[in-house]
Write a structure and sequence with these properties.
53% strand; 4% helix; 840 residues; Immunoglobulin-like; 50 strands
Amino acid sequence: MVAAHTCGVSCTRRFVLPAASIARLLAGILFSYAALHAQVSIMGRVVDENGAGIAGARVEVRSSAGLTVSAFSDPAGNFRAVLPGEGEYSVRVERLGFFLYTNPAQQFEPGASQLTIHLNHQQEFADKVDVTYSPPAIDPQETSERKELSAAEIQGVPYPAPQDYRSALPLFNGVVQDTAGHLHFNGGDSNQANYTLDGFNMSDPVTGRLETRINLESIQSMDLENSRYSADNGRGSSGVLDLKTRMGDDRFRFGGTNFIPGVTSDNGLYINKWTPRVEFSGPIVKGRAWFHNGLDAFYNVDSVHGLPNGQNRTSGLTVSDLSRFQVNITPANILTASFLYNLAETNRFGLSILTPAEATTNIRQTLYMSTIRDQHYFGGALLDIGFADTRGLLHNPSQGPEIYQITPFGNRGNYFSAVNRHWYRQQVAANLFLPTVHFRGSHHLKFGVDLEHESFHQQVARHDYEVLRDDNSVARTVAFAGMPFQSRKNVEAAQYIQDHWSPTDGVTLEAGIRTEWNEIVRDLEVAPRAAVAWAPRKLHDTKFSAGWGIYYDAINLGLIAREQDQISLSTFYLPGGVVHGPVATSFQVNDRALSTPRYQTANVTVERKLPFEFYGKAGYTWREGGDGFVFSTTAPQIGPMFYNGAVFVLKNARHDRYDAADFSIRRTFAGQFEWFLGYTRSSTRSNAAVDYSLENPIFAPQMPGPFAWDTPNRVHMWGWVPLPKRLLPPRLAFLIRNTTAAYLLEYRTGFPFNVLDEEGFLVGAPNSHRYPDYFNVNLHFERRFRALHYLWAWRFGYNNITGNLNPNVVENVQGTPRFLTYGRGQARAFSVRLRLLGRK
């Protein structure tokens, strides 16, 4: 029997490790320390040529054995990568819109290494001949549905009306331009998107539309997020468009386009087109301060055949000038400022065979936009504070006080409405990007606030007009009563918090919440958003992403101020001598009964790198809202009931839905040539598709139907390629040397439109008819050459090479001789462009 050993309080037991165990323990500690010390970590930053951080740059470090480590830069340009050991590595950094950076032999020593990488923006005329554009790439950490047009794509694709950057936006999937030239993102109205210039709001506060003009040469890129966009963006449920503009560098640069005017002999010899664009940039103090200025003008004189000489021409002049300045107070403190001026004048606006000179209006618009921004980098964080002041003016007089007549054969007299408007906006925005936090992965936290004050006042002078039948009898007369003055103001405030979390390689989660408040509705609006991106390791170069969010629209001051507008008094002259009227039509708005229009958007997307360096993308987007603004009658009005008058009240009664499946494939050839193919199948419908206004009254009850920009099927392809050297015999090969072919092809379903009777009543359902399908092919050739020590590029080609009708106007009054007669859109046109790219 063995007695148990017990030990009291004063008893101490000793544990003695053998010498071999101690040696192994010390060896393990030393080995772990050596391994930790031998590990190579890179704490780096990606900046542009002026020292500003670049977000979303892909950094790839590859060992001689083929082992690759990748990282992406955060909003401050910072990135972090851990290498398996010391030695020589190749470094490759790419970001769309920048030249590719490569370093085939970068030595990394044990421990932490600091690495700063400078990426240069794409330039039409590069300082080196061996530079390569960054190809499109799949960013596994990008959670938003982000699309981008670079400066090369904006300049290279031969889209219609190339003097206006807005004409390039339909190059995106999900963007269409209606017959009036207004843009629509994600099935929304043109006032449901958020338009920004270098992060500052540039939309018209009265209409909510994009009216700002900018020189194409000044645009660095156009970034569009039309779903899954994060909490730092607001004031738009259908998408966010941000124009990023150029800045000078340490080299003086000068460029010009189309500085030789066009001349025509149509009804005499005169200058009919002139679209000069000039840019100038360079250093103020090398390595410290820079500037960029972009000026463009568009002068046009158009003749309308069928009108008397002297009354058959309309002319216009638009001018924009953007000046930008940057001063690096310190390498970590960057100050930028800008000033934008716009002028647009059009004489005899709307002149056509149906609208003679006396029935047109003259338009003069001006805009002044001043901005200043301070960016401060500290401890891996970025604090961004900015202020913008924007002012605009619209003067739109008619040709006189004569009564305006609308007939089945055209319009007569002087247009009945004249507008004189002034508007203002002040904006303060601040964003804080915190350093990366490592807790169960990496977190990128972002906070921000945004304050805006908007106001406008206007005078709308109206006089009587008549609607005549085809026998010249009067169907309706309209007069106006009430004060011609309107004014409104609004204050908007927003704040947000957002976390971009990568718990493990290949998985990224983003969650944020945004709160908004405005002076009109005075409700606190909460907008949560969430998105996820997954790049599975077993499916190389593949990414799945999905997201959902709540988004609120901006409140347009012109809509809210409609209650201050005049009352229209319509008198109907019916067959048999029966007279109804005068019938009053008015609008009412009760701010306290309204809420801000609220929409939900969900999206799922898959991206994959395909064989032969093609990149494919497929996605589905759902967008729905039940609180949209719409004017509805206080009681149902059907047909003749409108003879008793109507009061339209603004309500949150509009329910919209947009569904879209889109597919795209693209490729970059030889480091600088692009090819893109996209298809979108979509539907955009509403329970309230009738739009009421004093200028264009439609007598009908509110009914469901498609919106006027609904286009179920759309296919477009664009790009530019070099002409093959084998196209001509060797002795003639010089004719196509340095020559590229640029092309654009687009097909889409025709837009819908309403049909009215001669009294102005809607016939059938809203937007029950459609224009013929649209089909357009543009083909241009561009050759670069040297002359007078400068590099030049001249382009020639045809727009609408097939001569398709592509109508944009229609006679929609049933019972008239020209009912459903379509007016031709752009005919086949020869286009020439000459550009001065620069000098070595």
